[in-house]
Specification:
about 375 residues, seven-stranded mixed β-sheet, four-stranded antiparallel β-sheet, 13 strands, about 15% strand
Length: about 375
């Protein structure tokens, strides 16, 4: 199998990840923060080290403000719903937002009467920032932006967005689901208020792990309530971080794997970009040379994530993905990718797109095999 669905979940994982998970599962087993015995202490140590490593790598000043969840979707829900909302408050997001951001925002509209503006992004950074500035009003409280499109790999000008937000004293939330592990991010250096990402994509960690990092000056209400292993005498949720936002038993094996993945990432933090860019350019150049192929998103000379969206003209994207899977043993993703606004912008709502995504573990030979398969598929449909 040639695996080209890295934007959904990375594969294969570094061997250290599985080893760390098995150690936590088979050798430790206990709940972190639930008991003073040696196994519970070892579990707590793993969690603490993971908080410290994530804080270090992503510029979060206080490791206690690194909060673990089941996935990035829950982390984003906590960030969005944990703020204090009133009728008339205004939120700015983009047409690139995944449903993990869009649906919580739409929920706020119905529950609190807030308004949400979605700003289009077509690759023109200046036009995007101009439109965002024009959308800000006195009631704007939050700017929630995905760092990069999960459909096309287009990267938004994050530093410029943050500058605009800071000038107007607007809270910022960055969905780094696609960029964490590919593009270095520092909350402190860049001025990000909240940052969310999953463990299982670019970081190369396990599924079932998500992280929310929150700046010290910002407070959030918990969206879950329950046991925290401490302050058990109180009927109320603790006010201290991270217990305030973490209820129930944490996924210790998963977080152990995430810690191992973060440690691997730290060693290779500057190694991936050139290789991924090489593969992206090779793939995009090859697709552009095949008659009947339409590519979407950044051009070959643009900076992008290792994600490329395309269609074989007139053919449903899901059909192409099925043919790739069953006849060529190539795994891709097709459809709307939980991002209908992006497809509305691209004009692909009916057809969807075929998404090819890769990382530094993929090879030039795999890209060549994929291009050969697309050429054959295109020729076969032309002859029908």
């Amino acid at each position: 199998m040639i695996y080209l669905d890295q934007a959904a979940s990375s594969f294969p994982k570094p061997p250290e990840v599985g080893e760390a998970m098995l150690h936590a599962l088979n050798e430790i087993g206990a709940n972190p923060g639930r008991g003073g015995h040696v196994h519970a202490r070892e579990a707590s140590k793993i969690i603490q080290e993971a908080r410290e490593k994530a804080a270090q790598l992503f510029g979060c000043e206080d490791p206690k403000r690194v909060v673990f969840f089941q996935n990035a979707t829950i982390a984003l829900n906590q960030a969005i719903k944990g703020l204090e909302w009133r009728k008339g408050d205004h939120i700015i997001a983009t047409y690139m937002e995944h449903n993990a951001v869009r649906r919580p925002l739409e929920h706020l509209k119905k529950k609190y009467g807030v308004t949400v503006s979605y700003v289009r992004f077509d690759g023109d950074d200046d036009a995007f920032i101009h439109a965002m500035k024009a959308t800000i009003c006195s009631q704007t409280k939050l700017i929630a932006v995905t760092h990069a499109s999960n459909v096309t790999g287009a990267i938004i000008p994050l530093n410029e967005v943050i500058k605009v937000a800071k000038k107007h004293r607007i809270i910022t939330l960055v969905d780094a689901s696609q960029t964490a592990g590919h593009i270095p991010i520092s909350m402190k250096a860049q001025g990000v208020d909240m940052l969310a990402f999953p463990g299982h994509k670019g970081i190369l960690g396990p599924q079932g792990t998500g992280v929310l990092l929150v700046a010290q000056h910002l407070d959030l209400h918990p969206i879950h309530h329950g046991g925290t292993g401490s302050y058990s005498e109180s009927p109320d949720q603790p006010e201290v971080w991270p217990e305030k936002l973490e209820s129930g038993t944490l996924n210790t094996p998963g977080i152990a794997g995430l810690l191992a993945a973060l440690q691997v990432y730290e060693r290779k933090i500057h190694d991936n970009v050139s290789r991924e860019t090489l593969l992206a350019n090779k793939l995009l150049d090859g697709l552009n040379s095949i008659e009947g192929i339409t590519c979407y998103g950044p051009l070959i000379e643009d900076v992008r994530l290792p994600i490329i969206a395309f269609n074989v003209n007139g053919i449903d994207a899901q059909e192409i993905a099925i043919v790739l899977d069953t006849h060529y043993q190539i795994a891709v993703r097709a459809g709307l990718h939980c991002n209908p606004l992006a497809h509305e912008t691209l004009g692909t709502t009916e057809q969807g797109v075929v998404r090819v995504s890769f990382n530094a573990t993929n090879t030039e030979e795999e890209i060549e095999a994929f291009l050969t398969a697309i050429e054959e598929i295109t020729m076969a449909y032309e002859g029908m």
